[in-house]
Sequence to fold (457 residues):
Amino acid sequence: MFGKKILTKCMNSYLMTNFQKELVIIGSGWAAKSIVDNLPKKILKSTLVVDNLSRSKINQYSFQPPENYLSPAINHSILGGSSKIWHGVLGSLDRYEESYFKKANPHVVRGKNFASDFFKISKKSLESEYEDNYSVRPYFTPYITSRLGKKDFQDIALKDFYVKTFSKLENGLIKLTSYDKETIFCKKLIIAAGALGSTEIILRSLGLYGEENGVSFTDHAISPIGISKLSSKKTEEHFFKSHLKAKNNSKGHFKYSIDSLPNPTRDERFSIFFRKSLFNKISLREEKIRNSIVSFRSNGLSYKDIKNIFLNPNILISLLALKVGVKGLGSYNQVFCLSTQDREPDRLIYLDKKENLHLNWHVTDKEVSRKINFAKNLLNAEFEPFDSEDIKKVTGGSAHITSNLVKFVGKDEESIKFIDNSNVYIIGSSTFSKPILSNNTLAIVSQAISFAREELL
Fold:
């Protein structure tokens, strides 16, 4: 007994001297970046950010995305979620979402002014305007988009360490184990690895395998759904006239979406935007290429992708449209619809018995039908929908995943603390129990900054 105490004391001393950090942050996306930038100096000195920076472990296990899932975040070697490969579009919560999160996840709302300052854009410029049966939401796109990397974490210790599991030791320390069987110890742990990454780490660490232990999630289901007979000019005059002169920024440009108002019985909402096109039909190949490139696919462009860009001017123009505000090319005004999804039992992130990660995701016929109906009600006779089956084929996830880790969070959801362990925290869209219609990035940064300022003093 006495010998065991001495051994434990020696081990604790060894850990303190060689491997222990006050705080470890898993992930190097925008959540981690905004936390680091707002940490007190006394904590910053003993903080370590870990990620699979070399991306060398991607073949460690199998992960196959659903057939229509077009997101670059599927490269699961990158922790930090889609914000790590954020394509530079900022949209904020509207008043309905803000009202919900004010109660369910207050840090998301309390940090909104800090998040606007973080991205150097006024909060007012991102405020929605409301009509009787829809709202108009502005999105800001900087001309030059920051891609996060090691250069963004120069003032803090950074380690190439691909986390497999974490566990709590008897002495109160938290042990992190990598796929290379390396270990790190810390007093506090923040998991900010994106909805996929955070969910996987937690399921694996708790030993929860099988679909029955999976975590529900939603994603933005996006696709072209038809052609508007209204010209781009008439569309702007009818829907966006009050916005065009009011919002201007020399370092970027604004886009606008037409959003459905909340349905009290569903999480599903719709967001419509327009793009000029050379074509009046759907091309599955074109949409896959466009999604890969416009989202700046994390594993780089293949020779085939580059060839397709130059052989298809419509794709090339759409890339310019994202970055410099070009309206697009062609005589057709294509209607795109992005929607949030209701949570369904069979939309799951889970680990199988062989430790492979699975993402069960789909779009239903009824979801496609409701998209079309929203556009018809909005544009009336000026809208010609594409065939429903064609729409379904090209509807892809856009990486704005919201997994429902709330079931692992303690009763006081505001604290975002991991159940049974007050020193483990989850930050990011994996804690959002309700999907957000706009890009999640600003909300995640809001949550992260408020958390760092209020709970890591």
In short: The chain has two domains: 2-55+62-84+147-216+404-455, 122-146+218-345+358-400. The longest strand covers residues 183-191.
